[in-house]
């Protein structure tokens, strides 16, 4: 059951609140002033704190601010016999969940406590999910090449600079884009991804810029494009080397003017978007052969980042394998499996033409097909299966 702390210098109020809340099944602690309450808060984990505002030694608003700075998920419900709108607003600004006047209405008190507990749980769950997402998107490796990638992303992420990420398929270009977004000031806004190679050339402009109803045969309703969806956040143009020249010219205009026009429309729409692009192609060759606009290349490659193939960083393979073993085990809800030294060394000798993506697939296959300890023989059988 949830654990609550009541901080109030009036013994009668503390007793009344304790009786009510213990009857509902909550575990209750008490503090008779702000100083004692702050010490108890530091030493224990509480789901909710009910805190008087006017108290000796440390008043409720100061206690609230100092407790909030500790970064916990505990929810504060402020209570006072001298409540007014200004006090309630100030309490909310400092992080209080709610404000209740004395004497508290019983029904409202119980509902507020219940809602505060639920909010605290949601905050904890969100933090856990963010950690899981971060681990899934983590760039793993300690090689010089991959450390250089990490250093650049950490330095560039908080800026507004556009980034062009190059490297072979499966090397981790998408991970780099996600890390850049997570390090940016736009991290709370959406990261919208577009796989330019997967969208037919006749539809790419509609995908990026949207379209108006009736602008072409199948346009039965208005569509909001990826640029508008990413407004305030980040747009990741994956495999931009496969984009048509027509779409390239419109992307260039959008980057130059921060405006787009939907297909079939004539209204200019302002957008505030940071753009990352990625490709496995040599864009200098594409430019020379007339398949990619040089002016767009220079717009996109303010900061170039090259992600090396896995064969150039074999020392990172053990770290990646360990991560993938844990990830797959968590995904399947089973204990993580181990891999013996000879098997790991053999994995480091393979060519990995599919790079990190191929390695992840192989580890998943090994987890499914092998016993708790993955051996060299297992790797020889399942790492390079006969097609």
From TrEMBL:
Entry keyword Phosphoprotein: yes
Any one GO MF annotation of this record: ATP binding
Domain Response regulatory as annotated: residue spans: 3-117
One example of a Gene Ontology biological process annotation: regulation of DNA-templated transcription
Record PTM 4-aspartylphosphate, positions in chain: 52
Keywords for the protein's UniProt record, in alphabetical order: ATP-binding, DNA-binding, Nucleotide-binding, Phosphoprotein, Transcription, Transcription regulation, Two-component regulatory system
UniProt cross-references to SUPFAM superfamilies, sorted A to Z: CheY-like (SSF52172), P-loop containing nucleoside triphosphate hydrolases (SSF52540)
A Pfam match: Sigma54_activat
Alphabetized InterPro entries for the sequence: AAA+_ATPase, AAA_lid_NorR, CheY-like_superfamily, P-loop_NTPase, Sig_transdc_resp-reg_receiver, Sigma_54_int, Sigma_54_int_dom_ATP-bd_2
Residue ranges that the Swiss-Prot or TrEMBL entry lists as coiled coil: none
PROSITE patterns: RESPONSE_REGULATORY, SIGMA54_INTERACT_2, SIGMA54_INTERACT_4
Residue ranges occupied by any Sigma-54 factor interaction domain in the UniProt entry: 139-368
Protein name: DNA-binding NtrC family response regulator
Organism: Arcicella rosea
Origin organism lineage: Bacteria, Pseudomonadati, Bacteroidota, Cytophagia, Cytophagales
């Amino acid at each position: 059951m949830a654990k609550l702390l009541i901080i109030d210098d009036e013994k009668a109020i503390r007793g009344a609140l304790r009786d009510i809340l213990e009857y509902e099944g909550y575990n209750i602690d008490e503090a008779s002033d702000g100083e004692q309450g702050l010490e108890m808060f530091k030493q224990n984990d509480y789901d909710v704190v009910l805190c008087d505002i006017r108290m000796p030694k440390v008043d409720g608003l100061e206690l609230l601010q100092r407790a909030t700075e500790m970064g916990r998920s505990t929810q504060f419900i402020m209570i006072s016999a001298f409540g007014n709108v200004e006090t309630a607003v100030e309490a909310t600004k400092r992080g209080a969940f709610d404000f209740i006047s004395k004497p508290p209405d019983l029904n409202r008190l119980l509902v507020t406590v219940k809602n505060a507990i639920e909010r605290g749980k949601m905050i904890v769950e969100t933090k856990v999910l963010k950690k899981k997402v971060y681990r899934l998107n983590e760039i793993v490796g300690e090689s010089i090449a991959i450390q250089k990638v990490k250093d650049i992303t950490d330095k560039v992420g908080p800026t507004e600079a556009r980034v062009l990420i190059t490297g072979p398929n499966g090397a981790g270009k998408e991970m780099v884009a996600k890390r850049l977004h997570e390090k940016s000031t736009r991290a709370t806004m959406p990261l919208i991804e577009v796989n330019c190679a997967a969208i037919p050339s006749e539809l790419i402009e509609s995908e990026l810029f949207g379209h108006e109803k009736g602008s072409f045969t199948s346009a039965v309703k208005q569509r909001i494009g990826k640029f508008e969806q990413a407004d305030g956040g980040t747009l990741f143009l994956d495999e931009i080397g496969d984009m048509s020249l027509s779409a390239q010219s419109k992307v260039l205009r959008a980057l130059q003017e921060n405006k787009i026009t939907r297909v079939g429309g004539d209204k200019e729409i302002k957008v505030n978007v940071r753009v990352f692009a990625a490709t496995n192609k040599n864009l200098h060759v594409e430019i020379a052969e007339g398949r990619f606009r040089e002016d767009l290349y220079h717009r996109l490659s303010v900061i170039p980042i090259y992600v090396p193939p896995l064969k150039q960083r074999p020392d990172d393979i053990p770290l990646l394998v360990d991560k993938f073993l844990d990830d797959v085990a968590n995904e399947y809800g089973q204990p993580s499996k181990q891999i013996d030294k000879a098997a790991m060394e053999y994995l480091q000798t393979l060519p990995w033409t599919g790079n990190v993506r191929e390695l992840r697939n192989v580890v998943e296959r090994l987890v499914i097909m092998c016993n708790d300890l993955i051996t060299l023989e297992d790797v020889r059988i399942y790492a390079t299966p006969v097609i």
